[in-house]
Amino acid sequence: MSITAASIDILRSRLTTAIVHVPGSEGYQQSLVRWSDTGVKRAGVVVQPMIAEDIQTALQWAQEHAIDIAVKGGGHSTAGTSSSDGGLVIDLSRMNQVMVDSAQKTITVQGGATWKEVDEVGAAHGLATVGGTVNHTGVGGLTLGAGYGWLSGQYGLTIDNLLTATVVLADGSLVTASATEHPDLFWGLRGAGYNFGVVSDFTYQAYDKSSPVYSGILAFPPPQLESVVEQLNGLLAEPDSRAGAMCIFAQAPDGSGPMIIVICFYDGTQQEGQQHFAGLLGLEPILNTMDMIPYAMVNTLQNPQATYGDRKSFKGIFYQPPLDPHFVRTVFTDFMAKLQHEPDLMASAIILEFIDMRKICEVPLTATAFASRNTTQNGIIYMRWTDSSKDLEHRAWAREIQAKWTAELDARARGQDGDYVPQYINYAEPGDSVVPNIYGENLGRLQTVKAQYDPKNIFNKMHPIPLDTK
Fold first, then answer.
1. What CATH number should be reported for the domain whose range is 98-209?
2. pTM of the entire structure?
């Protein structure tokens, strides 16, 4: 059903403090802006609540009028899952408060906050939790899909540190989900959370993080690729829970050509960090910004390359350490050749994560909905361009690269100990992966939880769980 002026009047009359934007109204165009231009859709109405009661009202109104529903937190979805063509967008951006309980060491965050707010408010109290490595990412999206961060080696995934969530369900009811209240919902939220409701606030376990950390950027020229890969392989072979790294294949920002960028993190002293990364530092990087910096600053290091605007696509990849340097060289060469041939893709990159997975793997696979807890590592094929006529072409090419990584993983990971789930939901665009490849052995239980909390599949934008029709 389409939205009418009369139905908008009904909605406005029921809301309390929420702002409402409709086509032509002041603020409407700005409300459509997303991190990626590929995520922009023309909503029929945008509701920006400040309290959970207005979320309840908006959800009930949309269902009464058979209106499509999307929920926007940080707006980082490259596939438009936080947007709606002609429907209702519940934009949580005005619900961005962060509250700290220093005595209990917890951080409570409203659903529209970004990790920037969490990092900064937490830092003011000497605390931090496991959060996003790009700080303008929304808290909600990252959490509901599992959430990796620089602190994952020590404390696990973001969901492993989630204590409670306040959720507006499809029927409009407001519930608290935790280990003791609605435990099935709490289980499902942790790894498949897009499927069950609108989370108005999260409470996380936090940790002392008042001391600076050793972190920064190293850059190397292409001939050193194999040496860099070997050093990173060595770091995973002798893991340290306080350390992490990202290896990025990209064009130099000044246009001087391809380069290998390594973001390094060590939660310790400068001496400890230098010792841990001695192998990489010994390769004499052409850029070295390593220093003792506040933890909150680490999550800003990627911001210059992760700006708003342009068209973007994510294709998630997995790899089984150790990386084969010859395979990586082939991928690097092919990727850079494509960027040279297609200058509009020059801001694209391949990002490989190097995280100590031991803490993550301590949690049983069925303890949360997240179905991938093993030694495989994540990566992203990050595409960025401006020409909308090339959308399908660029996405198809990225899938070709993705397929190469999948084939490499298949050859090395299948048959090994551990459960193999070849896709991380937060790095998978709708259509890139079949549902069993995301939810794995937890799919059956997820179908039961979905049927209980969202039987009409109202929340259907991000890898919806198929309802069991038996």
1. 3.30.465.10
2. 0.96
